[in-house]
Amino acid sequence: MKEKIQAATVRIFIAVAPPDEAKRELEGALGPAYEAYPRMRWNRIEDWHITLAFLGELPVGAVPLLRPPLADLAATHRPLRLALRGGGHFDERVLWTGIAGDVEGLHLLADDVRTVVKECGIPFEGRPLRPHLTLARSRRNEPPHAVEAAAGLAAFSGRPWRAERLHLVGSNIGRGPGPIHYRDIEAWNFGGGD
């Protein structure tokens, strides 16, 4: 009887990330929500990102296919001027902050990223891009507080910043009670100038 050998997989997505200064500014605005809703599952600040294409669980062998075309893509795109703005929620359980600035450029970048993924033969669910940065989730079997926390961010308007890198990110998927942690598999500077 032959044993079935399962290929190693990695859960990956492609994203841009705000610089540390923008993250600290938002962290300051979230102070009251951190205090009021400590039981929410708050994303680690170092993991904050704006997803352009979520690829899900893929064989590790798919990663090398993505590297060269994503590097080429980054080299042709210009940095984007963005800002973190306001707050919102998905299904009353997921808290996010919105994205302002060159949102049209962000959509064009996401379209190009998704084209590259498809050209590499990697299937993914191509949901429409809704530019946001996920901040927290309500825990199962607990009252959702994302609506109240989002209301506390309504007036937040972060300073503009430049998205200067394209990130290929892997996660540990949090196969347990602990938080999900992300790590850059690789990142490339945008090279298209201003």
What does this entry look like structurally?
There is one protein chain. By secondary structure, the chain is of the alpha+beta class. The protein has five helices and nine strands. It has helices at 20-29, 31-36, 63-76, 103-119, 146-152; strands at 9-16, 41-42, 50-59, 80-90, 94-101, 132-137, 161-163, 165-171, 182-189. The strands form two sheets. It has a five-stranded antiparallel β-sheet. Strand 4 (80-90) and strand 5 (94-101) form a beta hairpin. It is globular, with a radius of gyration of 18 Å. The termini are far apart.
In short:
This protein is of the alpha+beta class. Helices cover 28% and strands 32% of the residues.
Q: Give the total of beta strands.
A: 9
Spatial shape: globular
As a whole number of angstroms, the C-alpha radius of gyration is 18 Å
Strand content: 25-35%
- State the end-to-end CA separation: 61 Å
Mean pLDDT score: 90
H/E series: EHHEEHEEHEHEEE
Task: Give the count of helical stretches.
Answer: 5
User: Which class of secondary structure composition applies to the elements?
Assistant: alpha+beta
Q: Which stretches are low in confidence, meaning pLDDT under 50 for 5 or more residues running? A: 1-7
Major sheet size, sense and barrel closure? 5 strands, antiparallel
